[in-house]
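Lab channel / #folding
Pinned by the channel admin:
"Please post every new chain as: sequence first, then the structure tokens as a reply. Keep commentary short and put observations after the output so the thread stays searchable."

First post following the new format, from NK:
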Amino acid sequence: MGQCGITSSKTVLVFLNLIFWVEDEVNHSIQKVYNEYNGTNTDAPSRAIDYVQRQLHCCGIHNYSDWRNTRWFNESRNNSIPVSCCKPNARNCTGSLAHPGDLYPEGCEALVVKKLKEIIMYVIWAALTFAAIQVFGMLCAFVVLCRRSRDPAYELLMTGGTYA
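Reply from TO:
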């Protein structure tokens, strides 16, 4: 029981450290994925970016103008960004930068970091709850042991210096 408590405490420390590491790692990873975007649904980076932008209602890393710095934007030469940046209520949105009101204004990096931190906090709370249950179990076992040792009906059986 004690080992589980120690393990869950170590887990909490690992996840606390992870919170600070997440932001830096997300920034590096998201930049890499945006640079690999090619606008088709056949490759994982493109599918991932489109999915995140649609689900989190965001566009680009910091905002929609980040797309101007990507290889896909420079190669397409049509002054538009992915349609996944379009707001759902924007009719006939083509991702054109000429109509920025049709696009999500907020970038995805901050929202992804926020979601990951929320998930990590749930894991931390679960680990802390597990550790608290372990401590409570050890406390209960200690109380039972102390009460049993004072009970006159309980006697330790010893034969020849060894416990029977």
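NK: The two ends are 25 Å apart (CA to CA).
TO: also worth noting, The CA atoms of residues 34 and 70 lie 7 Å apart.
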